[in-house]
Amino acid sequence: MPRLRLLSAAPAVVRHFVPSLCLGFMLAGGSAPVAWAEATIPQTVVQYRIYAHGFKVMDLQASYRLSDAQYGVAAHVKTGGFLGLFVKTNLQISAQGSFNGQTAEPALYDSVGWSRERNRHVSLTYRDHVPDVTRLDPPETDREPVPDADKKGAIDTLAALMNLLHQVRTTQSCGGHAKMFDGMRLSTLSMHSAGLQRIPSGGPREWGEDALRCDFVVQQTEGFKFNSPNSKLRNPQPGRAWFEKIGDAGFVVVRVEIDHPKMGRITIILDGPPQQKT
Length: 278
Prior knowledge:
Blueprint: H1 2-8, H2 10-21, E1 43-52, E2 55-66, E3 70-79, E4 90-100, E5 103-115, E6 118-127, E7 130-137, H3 148-151, H4 157-171, E8 175-181, E9 186-198, E10 210-222, E11 237-245, E12 251-260, E13 264-270, E14 275-277
Antiparallel strand pairs: 1-2, 1-13, 1-14, 2-3, 3-4, 4-5, 5-6, 6-7, 8-9, 9-10, 10-11, 11-12, 12-13
């Protein structure tokens, strides 16, 4: 039963970390194009499997368009496998933005769907580099509010990921720091390149050779629940991401590992080769 209690916490954990660490994208199989990014840029479609304690707990279906100037991304995350028998999560997450050199400048972020036993909707817009919560339904009145002054310069989790992917594609390295705000929580993200190495679990013939490893640390700093002054979620949460160049799709995240203080090792694995669509 302790393992089942841990698994039941997975949706909240993955809802917070998957968008920032895996790829941000549009629901694979959807008919509408990813918004904002230029239509001439190919759309990359990917799927991932997410594991905790050796059990498959969630699926991520996704696609994105990314250029030197802008990005349009979205993701569909839902519980599956063993966890799907006990807990239901079904979220669609999307974001739009542009780049100023190597820096992402987000414009919109939206997360909507079923999570934590009810429908939820979070929307952000940006003004003068400050994220503004335009929708938070239902209100999270049991959390510490994050002051606007502290949100200055913060970006959403999908923007943080697209910024990282953009950096990997243009410099074949990763590094730097960012503040992330998801409408409720403020976190810091630090990254550095660990060079080329073999992916721990390998992969099919389409990938599984040497990949660029990026080590990162995520730490929530504000927006905690009032009743959790000693929460383990205050601790730094280290992780690793491997990027491999696969055919016309270019560099793609093929594996992510997150060492979570409550869930232990969470592993996100590319499920099938990425697809390129117009």
